[in-house]
């Protein structure tokens, strides 16, 4: 039976412009291409987990504008359970304005309907959370709603993976309730921004899986610190790489893989995603991830 992963988070339409380089302040450049691509950290992670073989439920909101229904349809097409996605009248769907240049990207996110993922809405889907093997969260919905999800998951003994992005400062009480935290090296500094939280980090290193891009993941298991290395691939587009890692990591943890195995699985999925254009469109299936892990690709 497939692992049950519930993702509560953002659903966006990515507005992606490609250019030879990033514009300077006040400068106008001619772009090379433009596409609208389904995105949002929550939806990205849900699609990544579904492509990797999990039974995935997405909880979130879209607007009643032209982007909303296509995003719901996309979740359905990708094999994500979408009945818990609500359409909010009179509110625009969240968007991410992405510029891709020099094998990298810049992103501006406008939350829109994602701000309507309220604690009250979260409580409506308590049974879905309760039935999960793992819950996966990010910070593109209101922080109060993130707290509500964590509290409900704790009540029902469901483990939580929190990807603290886009990063914001949170209190120690919330940190203490999360089983797995997946910041990158920059987000970690903000996450443990006072003495109490820094002490918590030092005492609970086994909860932190710090991503360093292609270098890999820094982690601690059974008291031993290690770096789970990344995979070298030809980079086409880094958009969604972190989301793909988190989707893969959550699936592996839900399946009962060891921490190191889960980090390795997430690394392989994330590496394959950057070799294709687009966030969700570049995400790999489980067969290709296993081939990379087994040395049959690359």
From TrEMBL:
Binding-site residues, substrate: 12-14, 40-44, 140, 243
Cofactor binding summary note: Requires a divalent cation, most likely magnesium in vivo, as an electrophilic catalyst to aid phosphoryl group transfer. It is the chelate of the metal and the nucleotide that is the actual substrate.
Main location: cytoplasm
CDD domains documented for this protein: ribokinase
Activity regulation behaviour: Activated by a monovalent cation that binds near, but not in, the active site. The most likely occupant of the site in vivo is potassium. Ion binding induces a conformational change that may alter substrate affinity.
Cofactor(s) annotated in UniProt: Mg(2+)
Reaction(s) catalysed (UniProt annotation): D-ribose + ATP = D-ribose 5-phosphate + ADP + H(+)
Compartments it resides in: Cytoplasm
Pfam families: PfkB
Metabolic or biological pathway, per its Swiss-Prot or TrEMBL entry: Carbohydrate metabolism; D-ribose degradation; D-ribose 5-phosphate from beta-D-ribopyranose: step 2/2
Alphabetized SUPFAM superfamilies for the sequence: Ribokinase-like
Catalytic residue list: 243 (proton acceptor)
Molecular function per GO: ribokinase activity
Domain Carbohydrate kinase PfkB as annotated: residue spans: 3-285
Domain of life: Bacteria
Binding site for ATP: 184, 211-216, 242-243, 267
Enzyme Commission number, as recorded: 2.7.1.15
Enzyme class: transferase
UniProt KW keywords: ATP-binding, Carbohydrate metabolism, Cytoplasm, Kinase, Magnesium, Metal-binding, Nucleotide-binding, Potassium, Transferase
Subunit structure, interactors included: Homodimer.
Record's function text: Catalyzes the phosphorylation of ribose at O-5 in a reaction requiring ATP and magnesium. The resulting D-ribose-5-phosphate can then be used either for sythesis of nucleotides, histidine, and tryptophan, or as a component of the pentose phosphate pathway.
Family label: Belongs to the carbohydrate kinase pfkB family.
Record's protein name: Ribokinase
